[in-house]
């Protein structure tokens, strides 16, 4: 009995010790070319997992989670320095907006008014806006405030996007809060209001690899998506056809290696030059529900994506290569080193009435939530 009491006391002491780790610690992260100073926020939870985020682009820098042996490793692919985030590829880990993914012809009409947007892509002479244009939310400094609630710690980012920014109407007040929970989940909560009718589609652009810091060919990890329908894009990488996933390379209703049908003849694979896809999530009703999971059989580490959004978009880093991306946290970033699990409203929704609306009007409040629930088995 005495030994049992001693063991119980040790367990309780360890639990208290772990709970005391749940905190947010800010530190200097460097200075941008504009002279603006950035801060890195280190979040830890009661399990010893952690996350690093920065106010430049409201960006995720690291997420450190355990594998089946309890080994903690970073599952986020990308740089680790402010200079690399500013001068390298824009889209490692940030909030993307005002409108995530693409708007065809870089324009839309709302209430009879046509809005011309800042185009940052061009397809066969036609402009397209992607992720908010040349100076999207990822390029902005955000106000940041650490926050704490029962069972989770976080950082709340805020900025006012002025009327006309990147061509979008309305002064938009935007808040993005990242939480790290004691259950090893990362919760991303988005909110916005506007003083003019506008459109909005916020998401996060973090690349995941469940193998951890050593990295791996992401195509050998197992993906499952709760969707029966997938989008086939047009030549501007915007939605064209909605097709059943059955008998296609995009049938992940059961877990498969990402590349299990990569050689199957398929028009969408041809257009996108590889495994880049947008799924119509099953039975969407705006409530929080599971969208997908990504699992690494080698480490036993995995993640489930839960979201209030109607679509899931993936990209497997086919454009990465060690010459172009020499600045990764753990060495150069090679082709197929990481995968997006981007929860989102459908690309080009402002021009396509078949999709759920992305219109936000004065007096309304935009909200969205995505949770990445990490596990090991």
Overview of the molecule:
The protein is mainly beta and 377 residues long. It has a single domain (23-376), classed as Beta-galactosidase, Chain A, domain 5. It is 8% helix and 43% strand. The protein has three helices and 31 strands. A nine-stranded antiparallel beta sheet has the order 13-14-15-16-31-26-25-20-23, with no helix packed on it. Strands 1-2-3-4-5 form a five-stranded antiparallel beta sheet, with no helix packed on it. A five-stranded antiparallel beta sheet has the order 22-21-24-27-29. Strand 9 (107-110) and strand 10 (113-116) form a beta hairpin. It is globular and about 55 Å long. Mean pLDDT is 94; it is low at 1-19.
What are the defining features of this structure?
single chain, 377 residues, mainly beta, nine-stranded antiparallel sheet, five-stranded antiparallel sheet
Which whole number gives the mean pLDDT? 94
Largest sheet report? 9 strands, antiparallel
The 3D shape can be described as globular
Structural class: mainly beta
Number of strands: 31
Q: What is the number of domains?
A: 1
Indicate the low-confidence ranges by residue numbers.
1-19
Calculate Rg over CA atoms: 21 Å
Through-space gap between termini: 33 Å
Output the number of helix runs.
3
Strand content: 35-45%
> What is CATH's topology name?
Beta-galactosidase, Chain A, domain 5
What's the CATH class label? Mainly Beta
CATH architecture: Distorted Sandwich
**Helicity level, as a percent range?**
under 10%
Strand order in the sheet with the most strands: 13-14-15-16-31-26-25-20-23
